[in-house]
Design a protein that fits this description.
Layout (H helix, E strand, L loop, with lengths): L2 H63 L5 H23 L4 H71 L3 E11 L5 E4 L7 E8 L8 E10 L15 E4 L2 E4 L2 E7 L4 E8 L7 E9 L2 E10 L1
Antiparallel strand pairs: 1-2, 1-3, 3-8, 4-7, 4-9, 5-6, 9-10
């Protein structure tokens, strides 16, 4: 083979090798680019997945911090939390699926908007509750003040009632008791000896009282012997009345018509047996209140 032909074959071989080298270089570049694009795609999906998980977990934390006294709203928020947990499971299940991750990302954005609506609602409810609490406290304070005033008025009323009741009780002047013996002709003679005493006469002047209720008044007389026994003209233990917070016997009772004017009143006690000598205490009561007291000495 001559020299020129060898030279041509060598040139052709060099050209072919160059073409092959260039082809390999192009293929390598394309493959490297594909790998790089794929790695970039995987990296982007991974970042979106991590960001999405972070957003969903943050929403769960925010929901846990929300409190509201509304059963319907609480039920709705529990439903949203359950949906978020389900989305977190979907992320793990389809972590390499870009389309599903993108879809879940859009759903997460919707859930975020819903949660913002809840935040606004809860804030409004809390504000309303604060206002209602203030109104309640104001009403409680008003009620307390009204109750205090009512109690003060009731106390004042009771005080006035007590004063009226006290003021309406009859009063006596010149209360006195004497022993009486009745002669055959019916004339009453004062005596000071116990064995001659048949009656004990107690007289008093009932004072004028314009605030007392006019009408029938009952006056009770208690005559206490030197031995401390209440004399009873009928020896009847049922003759009792209430006075000054207790119940006790009375010796004699007299009812008269009182018309708010000064009036003289005498009450007679009839001795059943011989009276013992000594000092007798005579008490007069009206409306359960002691209105007069005197003493009688019989020898």
């Amino acid at each position: 083979m001559d020299e020129p032909k060898k030279s041509n074959k060598k040139s052709i071989a060099i050209v072919l090798l160059s073409i092959l080298a260039l082809a390999f270089a192009v293929l390598y570049f394309l493959k490297a680019t594909e790998v790089e694009d794929k790695e970039e795609t995987i990296s982007t999906i991974e970042l979106e997945k991590l960001q999405l998980k972070s957003d969903l977990q943050e929403m769960l934390i925010q929901y846990d911090t929300l409190t509201v006294q509304n059963s319907q709203l609480n039920a709705e928020m529990l439903g949203q939390q359950e949906q978020i947990r389900d989305m977190l499971k979907q992320i793990e299940k389809h972590k390499d699926d870009a389309w599903i991750i993108h879809k879940l990302k859009k759903e997460a954005a919707t859930l975020r908007d819903i949660m913002k609506g809840y935040l606004v609602t809860i804030d409004s409810l809390n504000t309303l509750n604060i206002d209602l609490q203030k109104d309640k406290e104001f009403l409680v304070e008003e009620l307390s003040q009204a109750k205090t005033k009512a109690q003060a008025l009731e106390k004042e009323k009771e005080g006035l009632k007590s004063k009226v009741e006290t003021g309406s009780v009859l009063r006596t002047d010149a209360l006195s008791s004497v022993g009486i013996r009745v002669r055959n002709n019916g004339k009453q003679v004062e005596v000071n000896r116990a064995n001659r005493t048949e009656l004990i006469r107690t007289c008093a002047t009932i004072a004028e009282n314009i605030i007392a209720e006019p009408g029938k008044k009952s006056v009770y007389l208690r005559i206490i012997s030197p031995e401390g026994i209440v004399l009873d003209s009928e020896n009847d233990d049922s003759k009792r009345f209430d006075f000054e917070g207790v119940s006790g016997k009375y010796s004699v009772k007299r009812t008269f018509d009182y018309q708010n004017k000064t009036e003289d009143l005498c009450i007679f006690y009839t001795a059943q047996d011989d009276l013992p000598g000594g000092r007798y205490i005579v008490e007069m009561y009206e409306s359960g209140v002691l209105i007069g007291k005197t003493e009688l000495d019989l020898k």
